[in-house]
UniProtKB/TrEMBL annotation, chain A:
InterPro entries: MetI-like (IPR000515), MetI-like_sf (IPR035906)
Mode of membrane association: Multi-pass membrane protein
Protein name: ABC-type Fe3+ transport system, permease component
SUPFAM superfamilies reported in the protein's UniProt record: MetI-like (SSF161098)
Entry similarity comment: Belongs to the binding-protein-dependent transport system permease family.
Lineage: Bacteria, Pseudomonadati, Pseudomonadota, Betaproteobacteria, Neisseriales
Localisation per UniProt entry: Cell inner membrane; Cell membrane
From TrEMBL, chain B:
Gene3D superfamilies: 2.40.50.100, P-loop containing nucleotide triphosphate hydrolases
Keywords: ATP-binding, Cell inner membrane, Cell membrane, Membrane, Nucleotide-binding, Translocase, Transport
A GO molecular-function descriptor: ATP binding
Domain of life where this protein originates: Bacteria
SUPFAM superfamilies (alphabetical): MOP-like (SSF50331), P-loop containing nucleoside triphosphate hydrolases (SSF52540)
Ranges where the ABC transporter domain occurs: 5-237
Record-given protein name: Iron(III) transport system ATP-binding protein
Native organism: Gulbenkiania mobilis
Pfam families: ABC_tran, TOBE_2
Length: 536, 348
């Protein structure tokens, strides 16, 4: 291997360590379980956690499929009133973090909320309404929050091949319905499975929603073990089980692709959509409108109303502090992650053989790892490093030093980088992919090498991808709750942390203002996404 | 023989734009027809109307006596028993080759289905690949799978949309001959759409030339080449140049390289100015001839030279000359015309 590609391979390996170290630290808890902790967990927490997680996964999985796939099919293949609007508007819920949706739904539909109050005033009784603070309630909220993953991927799959698939089916004697069931659905399966996996990963990783609903899930238990029971080893043990569940999910998704290479069946798309006439069209529109209203419009309206009322309070100046810290940390993290993603993309380009691609894959695995797990996984080695430094270099450090890196922004940034590298990398790598080898060779033959080549060819062509990476990571960090909560330096409260502390006191109204700020930021990538799809 | 497929006065339009304009043709059972035209001429839309994917605005489509399409009424695509080979094959990537071919046979018994799939894969030369997935095959093999899949349910009519356009030239000519043989063996009535004249001539019994939604001529390839009905068809099919001339007799025309008389009378008055079509194979090289033309450029085709020759007037003619007659550019060579019938159109 030439020296230069060795250098790139080492770079990729170092970046991969960002994810590998925390994951391996957590996994080590499985290899060497502490019998006392395990006994305690088995007796008290674990059975309930597993049962709860099972129902949550099953419910949300089913829910996102039932919402996402039919909506995608309708929008991709049929014309009905409002189709162009719903085409992008159905992605809007992606702008709203699940924990924001959770507390606004609680505020809307709980006993004291406007919905039940209305029922009582009108009919004198609302006790027949099932409580939203229940397993079905959590499932419903997460389904509404995560169905867009399935919708988005399935819609693109159907739009590129759905019509053509139906035509092939028809030419072989299949009616439209049989064509959907026998042709389009099986062909879209890898995309649907991909969307489902993303939704389920989010479900496993979710911390805010289960915390707000007081639903016993792994993430909340990890947080409680660390910050209420002050038992980091217990948190680590729980995290190791959660990460195993995630790996099962990833493995399952990979397996479901099997030997089959899924490409689109033909270049369709030119053909017109089938019109849904009369009642059918209006039913389709009403269905899409209902989903959109429940998942975004109604909760967002409620948030704005609360925020408006809270605005009149005196603490809006305080809010600026949260906004400032959120923006600052999100910007720093976005810059860092994009730089790492760029280095990784170059490494894969310059050293495409050997271990480099593997390092790149491992480096981007962090997106599957829940934030609570990463927080523990990053904190443990940093604490060990601190102890090592203090033991070894104690006499050069100021008197009474107990922490070097612990409790600094550095820890938080490490965890962000591990979690969001995949987001930045996919944007940068996609742009890099479009720069062909022949373009590079052509520039080389015209005398451009080294940095001049990068400046003249790569940066201009990568600009769009880099901007996308910065934007996506920026917004993800803004929305991020568990890592920020668990690794932030003392006093470093961001919008998400503020929402956590206000919602844990049930103060929906004051939590609404920071939530609106986060939703507005979250709209940016959704707009970007819908633009990209429009131009396809 | 009576018509099996009747495409009668059919029109089709996307919103305001007419794509197919009062088009008619018929096909006898077992025949292979071809619609030939440049892209955007409406030929693919005709296929889609036949398949039942597009409604028609006027006219009717009948197959084996059954009316398939009328304005405002059409038999749905899946009930037509019409098969289609798509331009991009549209194979199902999640199914094996065997399952792809069996896809249209769901009402058949298992034993019959297996037998049919095996015999079709045998027919298209892919026996033994039933368990492969489409992406593991080459382009030509995928094309054959698409053909086998479409033929499997024994469609009453098979439609082929630019079936060879994704293949390289060599494979294209070999496959078109093969596919014709397969279709004939299965006695399948078929319609093919292409922009490639060689493909059309190699495959079809009847060829129609389309332009801007109209069918200009529907005839056997030989007729199309030797008796084009219009200047456009003459231009579109094969190579050739038009030379001005004057009608001097019932079958005779005088041009700057002499007077020719064909075997068939031309429908013009004596003294009328016309333009005569000269194919490259009409212009023979003859050292003894007193008529000279100067070699302006030449292309070596292996078995022959393709010369562009300048006449004394400056007009050009094309000539195909056996390859042992190698003349340098700029040299005058003798030419002689040899044709048994004249193709002429009024001068404009």
């Amino acid at each position: 291997m030439p020296v230069s590609s060795l250098r790139w391979s080492v770079t990729a390996f170092l970046i991969a360590l960002l994810t590998l170290v925390p994951v391996l630290v957590i996994l080590s808890a499985i290899a060497s379980p502490d019998p006392a902790i395990v006994d305690h967990l088995m007796q008290h927490t674990l059975p309930r956690l597993l049962v709860n997680t099972f129902w949550l996964m099953a419910g949300v999985g089913l829910g996102v499929l039932l919402l996402g796939v039919p909506l995608a099919w309708l929008v991709a293949l049929y014309d009905f009133p409002g189709r162009r609007f719903f085409n992008w508007a159905l992605m809007l819920p992606m702008a709203m973090p699940a924990y924001v949706l959770a507390f606004s739904q609680l505020g809307l539909f709980d006993f004291t909320g406007p919905f039940q109050t209305f029922l009582r005033e009108r009919f004198g009784d609302s006790s027949w309404v099932p409580s939203i603070r229940s397993t079905p309630g959590v499932i419903l909220v997460m389904t509404l929050a995560f169905y867009p993953y399935v919708y988005l991927l399935a819609r693109n799959a159907f739009a590129t091949m759905g019509r053509r698939a139906l035509e092939v089916g028809a030419s072989l004697g299949y009616s439209q319905r049989a064509g959907f069931l026998r042709v389009a659905l099986p062909m879209a399966r890898p995309w649907i499975a991909g969307g489902l996996t993303l939704a389920l990963m989010e479900t496993l990783a979710d911390f805010g929603t289960v915390a707000i609903f007081n639903y016993d899930a792994f993430t909340a238990a990890i947080y409680k073990a660390w910050f209420s029971l002050f038992s980091l080893p217990t948190a680590k043990q729980l995290a190791s089980l959660l990460i195993l569940l995630v790996f099962v999910l990833v493995w399952f998704e990979q397996r479901s692709r099997g030997r089959r290479a899924y490409t689109q069946a033909g270049r369709g798309g030119r053909a017109a959509r089938l019109p849904l006439k009369g009642v059918a069209g209006w039913v389709a529109a009403a269905w899409a409108a209902l989903v959109l209203t429940l998942a975004f419009l109604l909760p967002f309206a409620q948030l704005c109303l609360w925020a408006w009322r809270a605005m009149e309070g005196e603490w809006t100046g305080e809010l600026l502090g949260y906004v400032g810290r959120s923006l600052l940390i999100a910007l720093i993290a976005a810059g860092l992650v994009t730089a790492l993603a760029l280095a990784l993309a170059f490494a894969v380009r310059r050293a495409p053989y050997g271990m480099t691609p593997l390092w790149a894959r491992l480096a981007t695995l962090g997106y599957a790892v829940p934030g609570t797990v990463l927080a523990v996984g990053v904190f443990v080695p940093v604490a060990a490093l601190d102890n090592f430094l203090i033991d070894g270099l104690g006499r050069w450090l100021p008197e009474g030093t107990t922490a070097v890196f612990k409790g600094t922004l550095f820890v938080m940034l490490l965890a962000y980088a591990a979690r969001f590298l995949a987001v930045g990398h996919s944007a940068v790598a996609a742009a890099m992919y479009r720069i062909t080898r022949t373009q590079e060779e052509c520039a080389r033959m015209l005398g451009l090498t080294g940095w001049r080549l990068v400046l003249a060819l790569h940066l201009p062509l990568l600009r769009g991808g880099l901007l996308t990476a910065v934007l996506m990571v920026f917004v993800d960090v803004m929305k991020e709750m568990p890592i920020t909560l668990m690794t932030r330096p003392f006093g470093w409260d961001t919008l998400a942390v503020r929402i956590f502390s206000l919602t844990s006191e049930g103060d929906w109204e004051r939590a609404a203002l920071p939530a609106v700020a986060i939703v507005l930021a979250g709209l940016l990538p959704v707009i970007l996404l819908s633009r990209q799809k429009e131009s396809l | 023989m009576s018509a099996f497929l009747e495409f009668d006065q059919v029109s089709h339009a996307y919103s305001q734009q007419t794509v197919v304009d009062t088009m008619s043709f018929t096909l006898v059972e077992g025949e292979i027809g071809c619609l030939l035209g440049s892209s955007g001429c409406g030929k693919t839309t005709v296929l889609r109307c036949l398949a039942g994917f597009e409604p028609i605005r006027a006219g009717s489509i009948r197959l084996a006596g059954q009316t398939l399409s009328l304005p405002g009424h059409q038999v749905p695509a899946h009930a037509r028993q019409i098969g289609m080979v798509f331009q991009d094959y549209a194979l199902f990537p999640h199914l094996t080759v065997g399952d792809n071919v069996a896809f249209g046979l769901r009402r058949w018994s298992r034993a019959e289905r297996l037998r049919r799939v095996a015999s079709l894969l045998d027919l298209v030369g892919l026996a033994g690949l039933a368990r492969s997935y489409p992406h593991e095959l080459s382009g030509g093999q995928q094309q054959r799978v698409a053909l086998a899949r479409a033929l499997a349910p024994r469609p009453r009519l098979l439609l082929l949309d630019e079936p060879f356009s994704n293949l390289d030239v060599d494979l294209r000519s070999r496959l078109s001959a093969e596919v014709r043989a397969i279709l004939k063996q299965e006695n399948t009535t078929a319609i093919l759409v292409t922009h490639d004249q060689h493909e059309a001539f190699a495959m079809a019994d009847r060829v129609g030339v389309m332009q801007a939604g109209r069918l200009l001529q529907w005839a056997a390839p030989y007729t199309l080449y030797h008796q084009p009905a219009s200047r456009f068809v003459a231009d579109f099919i094969g190579q050739g140049v038009f030379l001005p001339g004057v009608v001097t007799g019932p079958a005779c025309i005088e041009t700057e390289i002499g007077e020719f008389c064909g075997a068939v009378p031309v429908p013009f008055d004596v003294g009328q100015r016309v333009e005569v079509l000269l194919r490259p194979d009409d212009v023979q090289h003859d050292d003894a001839s007193s008529r000279k033309a100067v070699v302006e450029s030449k292309v070596f085709r292996g078995s022959e030279f393709h010369y562009t020759l300048a006449l004394p007037s400056g007009r050009r003619v094309l000539a195909e000359v056996p390859s042992h007659h190698d003349h340098p550019v700029g040299e005058p060579i003798g030419i002689r015309l040899e044709m048994d019938h004249l193709i002429a159109f009024p001068a404009h």
